[in-house]
Structure formats: C-alpha cells, structure tokens
Design brief:
The protein has 286 residues and is of the alpha+beta class. The protein folds into two domains: 211 residues, 2-Layer Sandwich (60s Ribosomal Protein L30, Chain: A); 46 residues, no CATH class. The chain contains seven helices and ten strands. Strands 3, 4, 5, 6, 7 and 8 form a six-stranded mixed β-sheet that branches. A two-stranded antiparallel ribbon has the order 1-2. Strands 9-10 form a two-stranded antiparallel sheet. The radius of gyration is 46 Å and the shape is rod-shaped.
C-alpha cells in the first residue's frame, strides 16, 4: 500500500520553502522584510500556498475486523507518522484543503459483508482522526471492496506456488468472484500464500491530505549609491574679519593680520572719546 509522508522544512516556527532569486517576484507575492547594505537591497517575499501536495497514511485491520489496533501490522509507525504530519499542520504557513478517507476489504468472502466491513473501517479511521486531531476541514469518506483481479500485480511479483494457474483464475472474465475463490481454494499451497502474503495487505483504510505550503523567496537587487548633500559654503574677503562694534553701531572690516593689542587700544580710544563728548554736553546744559 502507498505510504507517503512529505516533510516540511521548518524556518523557526514557520514551515516553509525558501528560495533565492533575482527575478521579479510573483504577482501575488507579499513583501515581508527589506534590508539594505551598501548598494545591495535584500527583499524577502511570501508567496501564498500552492495546493498540489499530498500525504497519505494507512491503517491495517485483522480479518473481519474494523477496530484500529495500534500494534497490528505496521500501524504503530503509520499512526506515529500521521501524528508528526498533523503537528506540522499547526504551522501558519501550511494549509490543508481536503481530507479523504477510504476503507477497503479483501475479495475473499461474501461481497455484501465485505462492503459493510470496508465502510466500517472507513468510519473507524474517520472517528480516530476527528477525535484525535479535530481538523477544521470536512472529511470525505468512501469505501471499496477489492476484486480478485486486483491481486494480479502482487501475484505477478511473488513466488506463489502454481503461479500460472493462479493468474489464469484471477484474469478470467468468465467466472464470478465466488467461482474464482472456489477455484483458488482448490490449490491449497497457493491459497495459503494468498491468505498470508496478499490478502492481509488489502484490509486497510487510508487517510489522504491535499495541502499547500507558503513559500518564501529572497530577492537581491543593486541600487545606485546616494551621496550626502554637502554643506553650503560662504565667501569672505581674504585677510579680513568682520567686527561688530555695539557701542558705535557700526561694522568695521579690518585685516586679520593686525595684532589683537592694536585693535583693543583702538576700541578703548573710541570709548573714551565718546565719554568725553557726553560730559561736555552735560556741562553745557547746566
């Protein structure tokens, strides 16, 4: 039987597929982050999930049974892998679209009873999935009873006794299912091989998931460098500095090579002259 488990690459708490590309992102891509280092800009996009992935798990049953027995056949491994898969579906980047369950019965025995058995096997797996994992998606259930012709591939790849005679019965289009079983039972060694190697593998139910996973794409681009604006520069006459004389309310431009002492003496003289003029005015007034 098919046993498929597709693993997801985890990125931190996010299960996703990462890729590096310099191509333009898809139209439905969502920008997640963007960083710049020098002239290189790195952008990370999320592409919403794309369906088309599948995961399938089988649970086998004993003859004429429809209850799940964890230690029967390889059920323990399948149940463990199913749990691992369901744990991964908790990731926000993984999205299940549909869930299918099909129950099966082997062709030996009464066809009507086998149909009922296959239906009950589908229901038992359905109840297990619902009660254990509480999926939000609706679960579709079906059932099927195998026909004797479905045994042909297994018999062709086996070392069953009287192989040619067995295949002739299985491929016959002139006999009913009951007649084929009666003919096979007349070959004891071949029948024993069928009941031990072939038929048990046809008593199972499988659960299949259709799902998609968000993908993350990193894109790098090169951009033109930008230079910071230079501060504005002002021009002044060479060898001159501007001095503001608050006392006289005038601006004097003097050469920068004059000594500081000479400038101080000049300001002192002007202050004394101003003071003298003020005292003369006051004497005249009185």
């Amino acid at each position: 039987m098919k046993k498929i488990l597709l693993s997801i690459v985890a990125l931190g708490a996010t299960a996703a597929v990462a890729a590096q590309s310099n191509q333009a992102p898809a139209a439905n891509a969502i920008l997640v982050s963007q960083t710049r280092e020098g002239n290189t800009v790195t952008s990370r996009y999320k592409i919403p999930h794309n369906n088309g992935r599948q995961a399938e798990f089988d649970v086998h049953y004993a003859i004429n049974k429809a209850n799940i027995t964890p230690d029967y056949s390889d059920n323990s491994q399948q149940i463990s892998e199913l749990k691992d898969f369901m744990d991964q579906t908790k990731d926000s980047t993984m999205h299940i679209s549909t869930i299918h369950i099909v129950g099966y019965a082997s062709p030996d025995g009464n066809t009507t009873q086998n149909d009922s058995l296959a239906s009950h096997r589908a229901q038992s797996l359905y109840q297990y999935a619902v009660n254990t994992y509480h999926p939000a998606q609706k679960i579709d259930t079906q059932y099927k009873t195998f026909r004797w012709s479905d045994c042909i591939p297994s018999v062709e790849n086996s070392a069953i006794p009287q192989k040619e005679q067995v295949l002739a019965v299985l491929k016959s289009t002139l006999h009913s299912e009951a007649q084929k079983e009666a003919a096979l039972r007349k070959m004891p060694d071949a029948w024993r091989c069928l009941t031990m190697k072939v038929l048990p593998k046809m008593r199972y139910a499988d659960i299949e998931f259709d799902y998609g996973v968000d993908e993350f794409v990193t894109r790098t681009t090169t951009v033109a460098s930008t230079e910071p604006a230079k501060p504005a520069q002002t021009t002044q006459p060479k060898n001159e500095e501007v001095i503001v004389e608050e006392e006289m309310g005038i601006i004097i431009a003097t050469p920068t090579h004059e000594k500081a002492e000479e400038r101080r003496e000049d300001r002192k003289t002007r202050k004394e002259n101003k003071k003298s003029e003020k005292e003369v005015v006051e004497v005249l007034y009185w």
